Amino acid sequence: MNRKKFTPLILPIIILIIWYLITSVFNLVTSYVLPSPINVFESAITLFSSGKLFTDSIDTLFKVFGGMLFASIVAIPLGILLGWSKTLEEMSSFVISVLRPIPPVAWIPFSILWFGIGTVPAIFIIFMGCVFPILIYTIDGVKRTDKVLIEAAQTLGAGDFDILYRVMLPSAVPYIVSGLKVGIGIALMCTISAEMIGSSSGLGFLILTATNLFDTGTTVVGMLTIGVIGLVLDYIFGKIQKQIFW
Amino acid sequence: MSIKIKNINKSYSAHEKEVKVLENINFDINDGELICLLGPSGCGKTTLLRLIAGLEKANSGEIYVNDELVSKPSKDRGFIFQQYSLFPWLNVLDNVMFGLNLTNESKEENLKSAKRYLERVGLSDVENNYPHELSGGMKQRVAIIRSLLNHTPVLLMDEPFSALDMQNRHKLQEQLIGVWKRFENTIVFVTHDVDEAVYLGDKIVIMDKNPGKVKKIVDIELPRLRNRESIEFIEAQNKVKNLLDVGD
Ligand SMILES: Nc1ncnc2c1ncn2[C@@H]1O[C@H](COP(=O)(O)OP(=O)(O)OP(=O)(O)O)[C@@H](O)[C@H]1O
Ligand SMILES: [Mg+2]
Fold this sequence. Notes:
Radius of gyration of chain B: 18 Å
Strand content of chain A: under 5%
Order of helices and strands of chain B: EEEHEEEHHHHEHEHEEH
Number of strands of chain A: 0
Oligomer: heterodimer
Largest sheet of chain A: none
Helix content of chain B: 25-40%
CATH topology of the largest domain in chain A: MetI-like fold
Number of helices of chain B: 8
Mean pLDDT of chain A: 90
Bound molecules: adenosine-5'-triphosphate, magnesium ion
Largest sheet of chain B: 6 strands, mixed
Distance between the termini of chain A: 27 Å
CATH architecture of the largest domain in chain A: Orthogonal Bundle
Helix content of chain A: over 70%
Number of helices of chain A: 11
Order of helices and strands of chain A: HHHHHHHHHHH
Low-confidence stretches of chain B: none
Strand content of chain B: 25-35%
């Protein structure tokens, strides 16, 4: 039991030691190419005690959840509709397939034209990043509804709408949650591009400004914070999934 | 409700070939009768039951339930599937109330009758459990209650007990007879087990395969509840077995 708990820690510790050796002990690389762990630690302390790390995290989380929220509002009902109607899915599958691979960064020009600069375009970029996984997972979940459950409902007197609402939707919930989990990962990956557009706070902004100032310590702190947030959210969604996968 | 099956033909196209599954099926079921469909695997028992339910369309022929043409599924014809069909996201109580909750009857009334029915078949203890926490026999009992609670006059059952061990199977067969006597539904019960057919059926429709057709209809006129050890039961069983095997 204990051994299992520590297994995931072995690799990070090895990386930390090697990292420490090549930066601080043997001075193989200069600090603006790769900061030493001590450098990063000092930056972390500064950012933490000033409260900047906290406010930037909150700010980024606000954008991430904002984007996720709008993406869910659009993608879940649409996904249910498209999963339900073969005709509608066939009609839209081409458009979805073309739009889906476009990197969210590519939407930056339009997000500026449509939403100006600041928080709203950032939310839009994140929205574009996570709307498709949520949509596709939802469509998939609805389509995977066990046929026998649909037929059982029909023989119990359910009409088309009852089947959509009382059978297909609940049976798609585990897939929708998987979609949200994938979506939130992508949303976090979008934070830098999202905060390139006139943001004045947030973890992406923190990384961008630090990079411009060759403050590599702060850059790494920002990167790790996004990573840790992702880890925590993943854990939470994993718990939710365990609850609902019957 | 009475059921009339008239000249039913059904084929499936598989790999660009037409496979005839049912050929010229004709028989009637009287109101309140318990009919067993008996036949080898692949003779089209499930297909015929699905046609009666309205879950499948025939290539030709008609099925009438109380002189009304069957064209789509209806709550008048409850279906117990061969595989488990409970809604995994609903607990037992909500599962059995599924049909009732579709109508606008008061939720409180529904809850009351649901609890009463569950108690009658000894499922009160698990009313808050979810399907994955139930045994196979419990699942099928819940599915039956779900249909009964819907006041279904016709119950179509597709080998509902085939996954159960013999003891449970016998117990549920006995319970089914109890339910059928109380509610006086018309039941069409599919099985490939001679013992089960003889125990349950007023009539046994013996089917043949390639293509599926009715070979013979046998009346079983033994009193209820039937005694498996009685000479008459064993004789009836042998008779049905012989009819099944003829021509094989
Ligand atoms: N949807 C389908 N498409 C193509 N062929 C089908 C389909 N459903 C059933 N069949 C074929 O029809 C025949 C009869 O099937 P059916 O399920 O009605 O048999 P059954 O008597 O219920 O058999 P079992 O006792 O194994 O359940 C089989 O040969 C089967 O392969
Ligand atoms: Mg079958």
